[in-house]
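Office hours follow-up: a student asked to see two folded examples consecutively, so here they are.
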Amino acid sequence: MPLPVIRRGYPTVRQVREQSGMSYFDVAAAAGVKLRVVYWMEHGIAVDPVDAVKILTVLSLRAGKVYTLMNVQGIRVKEVRKG
């Protein structure tokens, strides 16, 4: 599995969460994911793509700005296997 992509000039998940004034607990509860998933995402551990989108959606709504896998650095998602 490749390392997370570092995109200079873009915030990390942790920076977005902290700027939004949310704790791990707040994000996990609002996104409907386990607390560890928020921690993993912030620390570059691969998470399910659906969980990543849920977390980014919560942060986007709180911040009033759209955050995606492309404009937040250091996010790793698990490969989606078909079939």
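And the second, which I mentioned at the end of office hours:
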Amino acid sequence: MAKLPEPDELSKLDYTQPESGWMDTPTVFKDGIWCYGAKQKNLETLDFPNARQWSVAEEDWKLPENWQDIILKGFKELLDKYRSFKVFMDICVRCGACADKCHFFIGSGDPKNMPVLRAELLRSVYRGEFTKAGKMLGKLAGARPLTLDVLKEWWYYFFQCTECRRCSVFCPYGIDTAEITMMGRELLNLIGLNTDWISGPAANCFMKGNHLGLEPHAITSNLEYMLDDIEEITGIKITPTFNRKGAEILFVTPSGDLFADPGTYTCMGYLMLFHELGIDYTWSTYASEGGNFGFFTTNELAKRLNSKIYAEARRLGVKWILGGECGHMWRVLNQYMDTWNGPADFLQEPVSPITGTRFENAKSTKMVHIAEFTADLIRHKKLNLDPGRNDHLKLTFHDSCNTARGMGIFEEPRYIINNVANNFYEMHPNTTREKTFCCGSGSGLNASENMELRMRGGFPRANAVKDVHDKYGVNMLANICAIDRAALPPLMDYWVPGVGVTGVHELVANALIMKGEKERTTDLRSEPLQSAESKEEDKEESKEEDKDNA
């Protein structure tokens, strides 16, 4: 594994362009930038083609003899299937509006990480194989043949894109460059060129129902540990149900919330909120994953993995689905699910059992985002909250790419934070909402062997956090995405030491005054609350005064 350079070294960026044209500039694979190749067993589990053991570092990638024919046939099929793909191949005028909008280009200076040029890697082969001008004029028309070097260049750069769609916000033609990356990955997948960090979680989800491969007893055991912590902190015993038929609501969250900090604190927040409300809900140990790593391989696998949530909802006979804080889970649901597996007419249009609010935006999917649900509760004054319990935190909010640009969820999490905390500071407007910068580790890039890539890709987001950290003393970065909760802690430790990462519902749980709770002296992380510290100081001062008076 490559050694990660120090921040001072990594921040020395050079945007000088190569003297040779991009087609004549060979791609050099740099350690710390690329991910390990997919393992044979995972490709076999997913029934993906060309399952074999191979290594990116070796010259021979063990491709089928007719790999070019397979790729070009797949290319034509995608062009015929997706009209948007053909439009995106044809209409780019290379104006450069997107060039400096990609976090990977900003953090690396590599011109092939400009969205326009990354798309040209694919578009140039399209011209050479599928347009008359390209066939006749070749390089003069921006065309080139599909060679082994070109294929490897595709692999190197399509896995340096998090499909965040920030570039698309600035494209005057509305080209969704993320969709081009997705098509590129689909083509690579036809000959077994995937990554271990994507194919492994996807295989786990296909077999076990979640990316981590957690068995049902492991899920319930992990939640029991959280419940013990909740009881210790609040004095309240919570007893959720699992796989219960006839519940009104099925709750689905990313498996990262079930397994690793800081996601576990977010999960504790869900448990406390639902208990306090007394809603009729159940967890599933089978559809135990909201995320969808199939989305980073092929649309067909994403469709298969998405279907399990609805199959489980049907099996349990619930009325609607409530989803936790996740990123690509919601982009899939909001933009693709209805075409793939919908409409979910066997479920009911979601209605809050507490406020009576009808979530009309979920008419088709029958699934509501937890941020929408909780913001509605607060708006109707259904929660007893003490924002002072979060006074030890100075917060900013990271708009997760998929929920922000993919759904338009901008205000709900901010509304929640401003009601459960007193110290909230926005980052620069050019780095938030639809212009938000990515964490640098999405779309299956959250591995360990590509840490330099992740730190470079996350540099623009970290830079915006550093700004509010230096100005206002911000010490906690909130978000509503499980990948962010996994990816942002090492990013903050590297670029902005002293800034932690939290889910929004951890903050909700800190502030939530539960009926029958004991006096709360710590937050969910067992950190002392400022109010408790103040009381302890007052007691000490009172003792000192009593001594003096005596």
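Two things to take away from it. Strands lie at 249-252, 281-283, 320-323, 367-369, 395-397, 476-479, 500-503. The chain has two domains: 23-193, 200-511.
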